[in-house]
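Quick start: what a row looks like.
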Amino acid sequence: MEQIVKSVVGLLGTTSSKELVIFIVSMLPILELRGGILAAGMLNVDMVRAFFICFFGTILPVPFILLFIRQILDWMRNTRFVKLVRRIEAKAEEKSKSVEKYKTFGLYIFVAVPLPGTGAWTGSLIAALLGMRFRDAILSVFAGTLTADIIMCIVSYGLLGQLW
């Protein structure tokens, strides 16, 4: 992930503000706020500013994913991207087993743990495919994103080291 973030920062860093680069990285699937916090560290942006930029960058696509991903996938099934749709749905189905049992709390935990393959994008996809209520899904994803942001800032900015 670090190499991808370096590439994006290198691509955008010369023409855009640090804050915009962090915001864009945070909006990207797979990278999300984990990549945004990493980019903030590379660009020497203070933790509080990075925290809010990454949070808002990560949650911006969430309502759109929850509302429109099923229609987008249905449309893509009738195009040459049908294999991609099958892969996306298979991956979401595989990961949804951990969410399905506990519903909104399971979704919160899934999004809150900042590991590869978890996060707001995947959590929103799972919620949409499971047919969760919009309100429950968005609250779980927002709370999970906030928790993951706190965890990433503590780890990335070395707050644990300063406490001990």
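That is the whole record. The mean pLDDT is 87. Residues 134-156 form the longest helix (23 residues).
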